[in-house]
Automatic annotation (TrEMBL):
Cross-referenced SMART domains: CBS (SM00116)
Name of the protein: SNF1-related protein kinase regulatory subunit gamma-1
Organism phylogeny: Eukaryota, Viridiplantae, Streptophyta, Embryophyta, Tracheophyta
Keywords from the UniProt entry: CBS domain, Repeat
Residues spanning the membrane: none
Residues covered by the CBS domain: 63-124
Pfam families registered for this protein in UniProt: CBS
Lineage: superkingdom: Eukaryota
Amino acid sequence: MRKKRIGGIPVVESGGSRAVGNISLRDVQFLLTAPEIYHDYRSITAKNFLTAVRSYLEKHHKVTPIRSGMIMCKRDNTMKELINLLDSEKIHRIYVVDDYGNLDGVITLRDIISKLVHEPHGYFGDFFDGVLPLPQNSRV
């Protein structure tokens, strides 16, 4: 995530494209705040990370998106539905899946905002530089 400068990644089944989880920057906090759930964080797999963090959260009765699973939508969901879902779940990304749960894409809050609001290049100066990169095909 650091190399690609992104805030989250989907986790898919080994050898397939069925979505099984999501790891966000918010979830990585457990590398610092709950080291007892695993010992060698540099070699832990995404699947083991999800399992360990979910178990830790259940034991401590905490509700977060990583515990409840990925938030997903279908291609035919409306923008209004996506915005309401992002707001109600307090998340920044929704994964698009097909009828079989295979990962089709991701829609972020930033994607939606960039489609609804257009500012000329440089409108905010360098205020947003380095926050999160826009997609290369972005016209914002």
